[in-house]
Amino acid sequence: MAAVASASPISSAPWWRRALPHVLAVLFFVVLASLYFSPIMFEGKSLAQHDITQFQGGAHEAQEYAKAMGREALWTNSMFSGMPTYLISLHFPGDWSGYLQTIMTLGLPAVVANLFLALLCGYILLVALGVRPLIAVAGAVALGFSSYNLAILAAGHNTKSIALAYAPLVLGGVLVAYRRDKWLGAALFAVGLTLNVRANHLQITYYLLLLIAIFGIMELVAAYRAGRLPEFFKRTALLGLGAALAVGVSFGRLYTTLEYSKYSNRGRTELKTSAPTAPGQAPAAAAADESTGVDRDYAFQYSYGVGETITLLIPNFYGGASAMPLGTDSNLAKAGLPQEYLAGMPTYWGQQSYTAGPVYMGAVVCFLFILGLFVVDKRTRYWLLAGTILSILLAWGKNFETFNYLIFDLLPGYNKFRAVSMALVIAQLAMPILGALALSRVLRPRTAPQPVVPADAQLHPALAKAVKAAGTTVAAPVSGEAAALLPQVLYAGAITAGLCVLAYLASFSFDFAAPIDGELTKQGFTPELLTALRADRADLLRSDVWRGLLFIGAALGVLYFHLKGKLNTMPAAAIMVLLVLVDLWGVDKRYLGSDKFQPTSIAASFQPTPADELILRDTDLSYRVLNLGNPFNEAQTSYFHKSIGGYHGAKLRRYQDLIERQISNNNQQVLNMLNMRYLITGDPKQPVQRNPGALGNAWFVREVKTVNSPDEEMAALSTLSPATEAVVDVSKFAQQKAATYDVTGSTIKLVGYTPDELNYRYTATNPGLVAFSEIYYADGWQAFIDGKPVPHIRANYVLRALQVPAGSHTVSFKFEPKSYAIGNGVSLASSIALLLVLVGAGVYAFRRKRVANVPVAAVPVA
């Protein structure tokens, strides 16, 4: 009897040799991210991100308080007269996932880390699917450098970018759980979803879950046909536990956001009449809006044009971004337009009101995606194709209203989101994945009769034994398989190139007119200049067609020569990495290039104006400021003052109502009750005006008027004199009755201020009602008189009010939401559980690897 033992050159190799390709890949990603953002890494510059600048302004008060006090400020008065910080700047100590993110980003600066994460997570996904490292690098580059990823960073949508970066990690966990190891897959899924949810961009998470749902349906059908439903449900249950754990880690953030959504402008409106069309005009009757989401027109405001879908392949088909630079060789320059105007011309001629740039997947990626429809296994290709098609249909929005209005009304939670063009992120995930799998299929090493080394080569005895046992041979195409793949590669190339040619031919039938052209004419654009601009739009389209054909031809050539045996696997894969990178990098730089960086930090951009300096001389504890220059879309004022305005996508619904129906109609009495002490006018001769009618932090009212609905309460503000009167909606606060008070000699003063605690002292000759110039928010604010909790009510549609006894007393308001305390506790428990899962997964993977490396038991041989 004799015994044989199986051996594998991969499993028997030292751990460092197995890890080396992955280490090199990670270093490559660091280099790529650092080079792309070289102004940040090597020149000390920062990215000029509009939304991040606005965020810094709105979050400044809360951040400074946290630094000084060592605890979070749960409320800020710096924007919209006061709102929770849940969606502005709030940390949950119980959520430990931030430490994991710090480890994964290797300490890289913001935005550099975002791009690195996108590359790293894409690589992990593809390696988990069994794709070899170099081809996984190509797929990771396709995922990370998709133009949308860089365009949103230019705009400052960092949380969206982070959520997108972690999406491949979530998908990797799902795919591994169903198709390989359910335990490791569930652990990877839990980690990926934890980090994705932590980014707190629920719209991206929602689209990701739609893609996972499509995959789950496909797997369910396959499991049913194969008679393995019990195993399918076991794996699904494990993923469900992973999802619960991920939600648990971010439970504090999600719970407070869910609570706030009821009160934000993303939630239900209580008003049942439309706003007047002119100051003083009575509101027209309107049907009650019982929606719990955003308005349909608002949601579909940014809908991708049906024809614009071609930008996935040809980025400048519709002119690129809303404002693009044109060179001195452009038609406009030749027509005589001064050079200073060429830096930002309206080259975009599509249907969207504004775009920072098209969603471009890459000509090479599109070619590989179509190839994947031929060569990747059916279950995978159908899932990714279905996701891509759904993505495109959803992005069309109002341009395909028959489908999308139905989805908006029926799909749970979908009506909470806006900017439906963002649905293209599904395709942004699906297309590179299918393309990478197609590339892996074509560049798969194939065995041939030749040994790895010549028979007479001198090898180390251990290596010679491993080679002999494994029977490893050199990678070379097998003619039969190559013959089967070659036509499919050619078909894919012909289809992709054919689309480019059709686009080129179609361009001669376009007029390249844009909605903005009428405005240009009003601003002095001559017919000759307008003709030149349209010619430039045509040139941009046709230039990108030729560019796309060049990249498609190069990629096709690489695969052709490989299948013909003229190009080995490794150099072919390396060239494909380079083609994908150069293709996407060149387009990305159009939307996030060197002109987007500034020599100073974002914090340094907040310099007080002369108006700010004048106002800051007033050292009273609390008062508000209104900046007349676009007040509800800027946060510069919020950085220095407590602002009537601000910049945020989810302000309080009632405050938005107040803006639309009273403040926008210049109701001075409403501004007075909000304690607007100063106006920033924008006039250099008089930059600041003091408002003598500001009512201060709190005051006693002489009369309480009652109404029976929110509409009546809002209407009453049009004629209310808040210095002496208050109006209360008794449909919400039945305990309050109409009343008059003798307030002679009664005074109240703010004596202590922090963002989430206000303290007052008052003296009242009689019991009465005090109105406070603070925003009412039921879930968290608690009133105290002499340290004892007492109920308070809402008055004047948005303010707090409190019944107080006669005498000298103290009043305190403290913001102590239960949702934060409960949420933080659940987050802490879930973080501990996630840590245990990670440790367990590591031990399991180590033991599994050891078992895999144990020689097979002796088998009798004749």
TrEMBL record:
The chain crosses the membrane at residues 19-37, 106-127, 134-155, 161-178, 205-224, 236-255, 354-375, 382-399, 419-439, 489-510, 545-563, 570-587, 826-846. Keywords: Membrane, Transmembrane, Transmembrane helix. Pfam families: YfhO (PF09586). The keyword Phosphoprotein does not apply. InterPro entries: Uncharacterised_YfhO (IPR018580). PANTHER family: INTEGRAL MEMBRANE PROTEIN, INTEGRAL MEMBRANE PROTEIN-RELATED. This is YfhO family protein.
